[in-house]
Protein backbone atom coordinates (compact mmCIF):
# COMPACT_ATOMS: atom_id res chain seq x y z
CA UNK A 1 0.00 0.00 0.00
CA UNK A 2 2.85 2.33 0.91
CA UNK A 3 4.53 1.60 -2.40
CA UNK A 4 1.44 2.63 -4.29
CA UNK A 5 1.25 5.85 -2.33
CA UNK A 6 4.92 6.59 -2.94
CA UNK A 7 4.53 5.90 -6.63
CA UNK A 8 1.53 8.18 -6.71
CA UNK A 9 3.42 10.91 -4.86
CA UNK A 10 6.30 10.58 -7.28
CA UNK A 11 3.88 10.78 -10.17
CA UNK A 12 2.19 13.85 -8.69
CA UNK A 13 5.48 15.58 -7.96
CA UNK A 14 5.58 18.89 -9.80
CA UNK A 15 1.97 18.54 -10.79
CA UNK A 16 -0.78 20.85 -9.76
CA UNK A 17 -3.26 18.63 -7.90
CA UNK A 18 -6.72 19.68 -6.83
CA UNK A 19 -8.16 23.02 -5.80
CA UNK A 20 -11.46 24.80 -5.29
CA UNK A 21 -12.06 25.20 -9.01
CA UNK A 22 -11.68 21.46 -9.48
CA UNK A 23 -13.99 20.77 -6.56
CA UNK A 24 -16.58 23.10 -8.09
CA UNK A 25 -16.24 21.40 -11.48
CA UNK A 26 -16.64 18.03 -9.77
CA UNK A 27 -19.86 19.24 -8.16
CA UNK A 28 -21.16 20.46 -11.53
CA UNK A 29 -20.16 17.10 -12.97
CA UNK A 30 -22.11 15.23 -10.27
CA UNK A 31 -25.14 17.47 -10.78
CA UNK A 32 -25.02 16.77 -14.53
CA UNK A 33 -24.70 13.05 -13.87
CA UNK A 34 -27.67 13.13 -11.47
CA UNK A 35 -29.80 15.13 -13.91
CA UNK A 36 -28.85 12.70 -16.63
CA UNK A 37 -30.60 9.92 -14.70
CA UNK A 38 -33.93 11.76 -14.66
CA UNK A 39 -33.85 13.37 -18.06
CA UNK A 40 -35.98 11.78 -20.79
CA UNK A 41 -35.13 14.21 -23.54
CA UNK A 42 -32.45 12.76 -25.83
CA UNK A 43 -30.96 16.11 -26.82
CA UNK A 44 -30.71 17.30 -23.26
CA UNK A 45 -29.17 14.00 -22.26
CA UNK A 46 -26.56 14.30 -25.01
CA UNK A 47 -25.84 17.85 -23.90
CA UNK A 48 -25.39 16.71 -20.30
CA UNK A 49 -23.15 13.83 -21.33
CA UNK A 50 -20.92 16.11 -23.35
CA UNK A 51 -20.73 18.47 -20.38
CA UNK A 52 -19.74 15.57 -18.13
CA UNK A 53 -17.12 14.47 -20.64
CA UNK A 54 -15.70 17.98 -20.93
CA UNK A 55 -15.61 18.44 -17.17
CA UNK A 56 -13.80 15.14 -16.58
CA UNK A 57 -11.16 16.09 -19.16
CA UNK A 58 -10.76 19.55 -17.63
CA UNK A 59 -10.48 18.19 -14.09
CA UNK A 60 -7.87 15.59 -15.04
CA UNK A 61 -6.00 18.08 -17.16
CA UNK A 62 -5.79 20.54 -14.25
CA UNK A 63 -4.91 17.94 -11.61
CA UNK A 64 -2.00 16.55 -13.65
CA UNK A 65 -0.92 19.83 -15.15
CA UNK A 66 2.69 20.92 -14.67
CA UNK A 67 1.91 24.54 -15.36
CA UNK A 68 1.24 25.31 -11.71
CA UNK A 69 1.27 29.10 -11.91
CA UNK A 70 -1.30 29.11 -14.69
CA UNK A 71 -3.59 26.70 -12.82
CA UNK A 72 -3.16 28.80 -9.70
CA UNK A 73 -4.21 31.92 -11.60
CA UNK A 74 -7.29 30.10 -12.90
CA UNK A 75 -8.23 29.13 -9.39
CA UNK A 76 -7.81 32.71 -8.17
CA UNK A 77 -10.13 33.89 -10.94
CA UNK A 78 -12.67 31.28 -9.95
CA UNK A 79 -12.42 32.26 -6.26
CA UNK A 80 -13.06 35.91 -7.14
CA UNK A 81 -16.14 34.89 -9.11
CA UNK A 82 -17.35 32.64 -6.28
CA UNK A 83 -16.94 35.53 -3.86
CA UNK A 84 -19.02 37.78 -6.08
CA UNK A 85 -21.79 35.20 -6.29
CA UNK A 86 -21.68 34.62 -2.53
CA UNK A 87 -21.86 38.34 -1.84
CA UNK A 88 -24.79 38.70 -4.26
CA UNK A 89 -26.77 35.94 -2.54
CA UNK A 90 -25.81 37.26 0.89
CA UNK A 91 -27.19 40.64 -0.13
CA UNK A 92 -30.41 39.14 -1.52
CA UNK A 93 -30.96 37.25 1.72
CA UNK A 94 -30.37 40.41 3.72
CA UNK A 95 -32.88 42.33 1.61
CA UNK A 96 -35.48 39.58 1.99
CA UNK A 97 -35.04 39.68 5.74
CA UNK A 98 -35.37 43.45 5.74
CA UNK A 99 -38.56 43.23 3.67
CA UNK A 100 -40.27 41.34 6.48
CA UNK A 101 -39.84 44.15 8.98
CA UNK A 102 -39.42 47.17 6.77
CA UNK A 103 -40.93 48.77 3.74
CA UNK A 104 -38.36 49.96 1.33
CA UNK A 105 -39.40 53.17 -0.39
CA UNK A 106 -37.61 55.10 -3.03
CA UNK A 107 -37.38 58.83 -2.58
CA UNK A 108 -39.41 60.45 -5.40
CA UNK A 109 -36.83 63.18 -5.72
CA UNK A 110 -33.38 61.61 -5.55
CA UNK A 111 -34.23 57.87 -5.83
CA UNK A 112 -32.50 57.15 -2.52
CA UNK A 113 -33.80 53.90 -0.96
CA UNK A 114 -35.32 54.47 2.48
CA UNK A 115 -36.21 51.87 5.06
CA UNK A 116 -39.47 52.40 6.96
CA UNK A 117 -40.56 50.07 9.77
CA UNK A 118 -43.82 48.28 9.01
CA UNK A 119 -47.11 48.75 10.82
CA UNK A 120 -46.92 52.43 11.84
CA UNK A 121 -49.85 53.66 9.75
CA UNK A 122 -49.61 56.78 7.65
CA UNK A 123 -46.33 58.48 8.26
CA UNK A 124 -44.42 61.33 6.83
CA UNK A 125 -41.03 60.29 5.57
CA UNK A 126 -38.13 62.64 5.29
CA UNK A 127 -35.41 61.62 2.89
CA UNK A 128 -32.08 61.62 4.71
CA UNK A 129 -30.24 62.40 1.53
CA UNK A 130 -32.08 65.30 -0.10
CA UNK A 131 -34.54 66.29 2.62
CA UNK A 132 -37.67 65.79 0.51
CA UNK A 133 -40.77 64.84 2.48
CA UNK A 134 -43.47 62.46 1.38
CA UNK A 135 -46.32 60.60 3.07
CA UNK A 136 -46.43 56.80 3.02
CA UNK A 137 -48.52 54.04 4.49
CA UNK A 138 -46.29 51.77 6.51
ZN1 LIG B 1 -34.25 62.11 -1.52
What does this protein look like?
With 138 residues, this protein is α+β, with helices and mostly antiparallel strands. The protein has one domain. The chain is 62% helix and 14% strand. It is built from four helices and four strands, in the order ααααββββ. The strands form two sheets. Strands 1-2 form a two-stranded antiparallel ribbon. A two-stranded antiparallel sheet has the order 3-4. A hairpin with a 6-residue loop joins strand 3 (122-126) and strand 4 (133-137). Helix 2 runs antiparallel to helix 3. It is elongated and about 75 Å long. The structure holds zinc ion (ZN). Residues 107, 109-110, 112, 127, 129-130, 132 line the site of zinc ion (ZN).
Question: Helices, strands, pairings?
Answer:
Elements: H1 2-12, H2 20-38, H3 42-63, H4 68-101, E1 102-106, E2 113-117, E3 122-126, E4 133-137
The chain binds zinc ion.
Residues 107, 109-110, 112, 127, 129-130, 132 line the site of zinc ion.
